[in-house]
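User: For documentation purposes, I need each entry recorded in a consistent format: the amino acid sequence on its own, followed directly by the corresponding structure tokens. There are two entries in this batch. Please keep commentary to a minimum and don't merge the entries.

Assistant: Recorded as requested. Entry 1:
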Amino acid sequence: MVIILRLADGNNFAVNGDAEGVAMQIIDDKGNVSNPGVVSPEINIIPAEMKLNYALRLVGNGKTLRAGTYYSSVRFKLDYY
């Protein structure tokens, strides 16, 4: 199975709202960083579990940091074979 994630802010994922200077980075449970539009390494899912484990962290996007609320959505494509 491979996953492709979209909605980019450079090599990270964009946020919307009042906050500025931040983006999201998505990491799988093996430490691989997901880049927008790039196919992830293949993942073998254990049939009994049927789950994907990812973590999210905020990173700078090169713009001046401004406090505020933010939200985001990430579109992903899952190819299962």
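Entry 2:
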Amino acid sequence: MKQRITYLLEENDAEVGPEQIQVQDNSLSIHDLYGAKEHRVTLGLDELPQELRLVLNQCHELRIRWASQFLYAGLSPFTSRVSPGLHVFYTPRRKGHDAQICQLLGRVFGNELACESVERSFINVPILSERFSSTASFQYYSLWPSLKKFVTYVEHAVHESQQAKIRSLLDVNQLDVDCDIISHACILNAYWAEPTGNKHWKELIETKKTSGTLEVGILTNEKPLEPEELSLSGVLAVVGEDDRPKATKFSFPSRHHPVPASDLPTYFYTHIKSPAGLHPTLQLTFPSGTKSLIPPNPSCALHAHLTLPSTLLIDKYQLQDPLFLSSQRLRRLHSVAGETDLEAPNWAISRWGSAVLLELAHPSAPPSTPQDGATAGAEAGAGAETAAAAAAADWTVSIPLHLRYLEPRANASGMSAVDVPWPVVFWACAAEEGTKMGMNPFDRTNLGYDGLFGTRTMFYHVPPAVQAAALVERVPVPVLDLGRARYVELGTVVAVVVGFAWVVWKLLAVGGKEGERAQGVKGE
């Protein structure tokens, strides 16, 4: 077993005094540190419980991503994001083999997960870039709000002395689990954006010589020399080997970056346009977007990756109309995978939903529409008059969604609700010629959207607005109230009978007139 604990300090807390970190024979203590924390544990498959080994030995790779639905900051190098909830990416060792993944997920995360089998519950992951070979074959998603069942499962698998540390996972903002047959190992990554309770970190980290290596780093970001790199400096110590922390500074290439700092910070918030109806519109608003939405370099394109539950879908044919896209400040639909049947009700859908990648328009590259000379001249004159007002305007992008019919239920209000996770928004930029994406000790892959780009694509992530209470939107949905269903049934029967009687009456009336006309002709 190997462990790596990284504390990433804010820039104003970059200085670490000797009294804040103390190294002893088999322990290290820290206190009065404020910042993010990552705990990485690497286990061989033979160190896992037998029921996990039996399943994982049938997998080529199994990658799990969980993100909290509450707002958190992502400091470099932990800026990459996924939509809130549980994401599972899976590739079988043998094609068509299930490996009982759903049963494993139920035991580890909770039997309430709507997962039956890979064939019925997972969707196929599209790969637009064949060079990106590390993308898994299948994907599952659930808006899973808590890790309580996961923590309980792990507590039963570890020694009693470690259970308190395991319970700290209840407060993580991100959790990654990566298992693959090539490395014959599982890696667990837990990320806390800030100390629990918004206090300072105060921890005693202990290890035994038989427990493997344990490395602890206290780092802060430095300005890198190259745009594709991240640079960190601080102190490192291997517990049980070093008698004092050692100064360090290192750089490495990274695919994931924060948006470059500017006078106006770039962020977005999401809401459902009211009234929602059966065709809700998801709106992404970038405050002062006309000034703040500046691409990091000319090759960049703004994207949004949506993870939609089965109750919602997009109309991929609607999003192929250039004029409609322009009216919504969209540029094009890059990819859609999963359930896209426009007619199927929710109870006829077995798979979890769909994943959608959209390219968004932005002020420096607005959607283009055909114009004649007179129209262009008129718009130029109008634009000069409103330039000052437009410069400070918010930039809002609209994404049209469609609701499926939900199951009837006993509900006096006749309403239900559907939760929609916020999308991930980022600039996708081509790296400069000659850029080599080497080893990144903090790299994340299989995020649902990275495999849709080339291996030398860099992602600059736009963070959610700090005012957001939760990264989930709730959509009100009308449903049939079973308590009033008999009135609907009775009304339907009456309407059918009355309609049928009216049609018969009209047919008989026409027939009678034709008969009278025939008799009149014969009499003449």
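Summary note for entry 2:
The mean pLDDT is 87.
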